[in-house]
Design a protein that fits this description.
Low-confidence stretches: none
Strand content: under 5%
Largest sheet: 2 strands, antiparallel
Oligomer: single chain
C-alpha cells in the first residue's frame, strides 16, 4: 500500500537527524537537536545568488528561523561575513504577518 505523505526534512532551520544518514555520527555538536544547524548559515550565504522572485520565500523562512533564536545563530557564525548576514536577518522587519515558513 502506498501513502501520499511527506517527511519533514527541516525543523526551525535545522536538518532533522533521521535524514542525515551516517553523517550524524560525524557531527561536532553535542546537542543532537542542533545538528544540521549550519544549513541556515549556508542558505543565508546562498541567498545572494537568488533574485527577488526566486528567493523571497526562502529569505522569509530564514528570517523567521533566525528571529526565533537570534542568539543561537550569532553563536554559530564563524566569520565577520556570517555575523553581518545573520545581523541583517535579525534586524529585518519585512516578514509578512501570519507567515508560515517552508
Amino acid at each position: 500500500m502506498t501513502y501520499n505523505a511527506t517527511v519533514p526534512v527541516m525543523f526551525k532551520g535545522t536538518f532533522l537527524p533521521f535524514v542525515k544518514g551516517r553523517s550524524i555520527a560525524r557531527e561536532y555538536v553535542h546537542n543532537i537537536g542542533a545538528s544540521g544547524s549550519d544549513s541556515v548559515k549556508v542558505l543565508a550565504q546562498a541567498r545572494n545568488l537568488l533574485n527577488n522572485n526566486q528567493g523571497i520565500q526562502l529569505q522569509n523562512s530564514m528570517q523567521y528561523w533566525i528571529q526565533q533564536d537570534p542568539e543561537y545563530y550569532l553563536k554559530i557564525s564563524t566569520s565577520i561575513a556570517d555575523l553581518v548576514t545573520m545581523s541583517d536577518f535579525i534586524n529585518r522587519d519585512t516578514l509578512p504577518k501570519r507567515f508560515c515558513p517552508i
